[in-house]
């Protein structure tokens, strides 16, 4: 075989691999769904397990509709959660695409033993969504926290306090009135993870989203992946997964469900996260 022919075959193979990766990134990975589970503390006498399920950044739009969201709802319900939390960015761009009736009907199907809680993301304030977001979520059975707290009393009379910070990019996250209130376990919901360094150090658990984990994670190219992350604000310090921001405070950054800017994911499969804590 001639050298020229070998080069042609190699180039052809590379093109096929590239097209296959592109097809996977656009048509397959965005519609996959994985469940990540974390036990946050050990069982102890007098404490009862609380199961919290987080989902984030659905970015509903023309290529990810309420029909796709229904799969997420089904998977969450299979976990039989005590509390469901949504950490912001329901629609991608409300002015370009919205389907409130279908979204409400779908989210209504979410079942939680104790509470369904939501906070604001930057896309919930932008793109015209600010006029509809809270109404949509409340009609779907969620309590929307905007620099507010929700107090949950467990069957063993323990208090779990969920504090929801407003979005840090297009609004103002001010939870100073909530932070030092007493509780047996404290959870902060904050859409942008890097904001937590300033507001989240007096909590047992902080749940964030916003980053999408970069959405595209190219193997063996960490500098490019970091540049992708840097294109979004407030995600460069904490971008995906679990962090210990103090010896007593854990932060989890959920990489989200949907896509934004480009309708593709590669190496960052959409996720639902299940947390087990004993209170």
Descriptive labels:
alpha/beta, 6-stranded mixed sheet, 23% strand, 12 strands
Helicity level: 25-40%
- The poorly predicted ranges are none
Total beta strands:
12
Molecular shape? globular
Number of helices: 7
Q: Which class best fits the helix and strand makeup?
A: alpha/beta
Main sheet summary: 6 strands, mixed
Trace the largest sheet across and list its strands: 1-12-2-3-4-5
N-to-C order of helices and strands:
HEEHEHEHHEEEEHEHEEE
Beta-strand level of the residues, as a percent range? Answer: 15-25%
Distance between the termini: 70 Å
Average predicted local confidence, pLDDT: 93
Rg (C-alpha, Å) = 20 Å
List the helices and strands and how they pair.
Layout lengths: L2 H26 L5 E6 L9 E7 L10 H13 L4 E4 L13 H9 L6 E4 L3 H4 L7 H7 L3 E2 L3 E6 L5 E6 L20 E5 L6 H4 L5 E4 L13 H9 L10 E6 L2 E5 L17 E8 L1
Parallel strand pairs: 1-12, 2-3, 3-4, 4-5, 7-8, 8-9, 9-11
Antiparallel strand pairs: 2-12, 6-7, 10-11
Helix pairs in contact: 2-3
Structure description:
It is a single chain. The model has no long low-confidence stretch (mean pLDDT 93). The longest helix has 26 residues, at 3-28. The strands form two sheets. This protein has a six-stranded mixed sheet, with helices on one face. A six-stranded mixed sheet has the order 6-7-8-9-11-10, with no helix packed on it. Helix 6 (196-199) links the parallel strand 8 and strand 9. With 279 residues, the chain is α/β, with parallel strands linked by helices. The chain is globular and about 80 Å long. It is built from seven helices and twelve strands. It has helices at 3-28, 66-78, 100-108, 122-125, 133-139, 196-199, 222-230; strands at residues 34-39, 49-55, 83-86, 115-118, 143-144, 148-153, 159-164, 185-189, 205-208, 241-246, 249-253, 271-278. 26% of the residues lie in helices and 23% in strands. The N and C termini lie far apart (70 Å). Helix 2 (66-78) runs parallel beside helix 3.
């Amino acid at each position: 075989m001639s050298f020229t022919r070998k080069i042609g075959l190699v180039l052809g193979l590379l093109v096929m691999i590239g097209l296959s990766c592109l097809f996977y990134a656009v048509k397959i990975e965005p519609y996959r769904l994985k469940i990540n589970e974390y036990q946050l503390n050990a069982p102890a006498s007098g404490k009862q397990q609380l199961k919290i399920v987080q989902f984030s950044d659905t970015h509903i739009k023309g290529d990810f509709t309420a029909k796709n969201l229904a799969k997420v709802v089904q998977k969450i319900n299979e976990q039989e959660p005590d509390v469901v939390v949504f950490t912001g960015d329901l629609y991608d761009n409300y002015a370009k695409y919205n389907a409130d009736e279908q979204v409400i009907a779908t989210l209504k199907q979410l079942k939680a033993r104790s509470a369904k809680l939501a906070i604001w993301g930057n896309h919930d304030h932008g793109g015209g969504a600010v006029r509809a977001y809270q109404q949509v979520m409340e009609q779907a059975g969620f309590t929307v926290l905007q620099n507010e707290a929700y107090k949950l009393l467990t069957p063993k009379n323990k208090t779990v306090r969920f504090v929801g910070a407003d979005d840090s990019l297009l609004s103002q996250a001010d939870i100073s009135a909530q932070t030092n209130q007493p509780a047996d376990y404290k959870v902060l919901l904050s859409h942008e993870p890097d904001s937590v360094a300033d507001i989240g150090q007096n909590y047992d658990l902080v749940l964030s989203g916003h980053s999408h984990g970069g959405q595209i994670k190219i193997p063996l190219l960490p500098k490019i992946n970091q540049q992708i992350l840097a294109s979004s604000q407030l995600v460069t310090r904490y971008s995906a997964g679990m962090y210990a921001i103090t010896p007593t405070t854990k932060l989890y950054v959920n990489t989200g469900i949907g896509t934004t800017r480009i309708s593709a994911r590669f190496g960052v499969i959409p996720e639902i996260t299940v947390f087990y804590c004993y209170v």
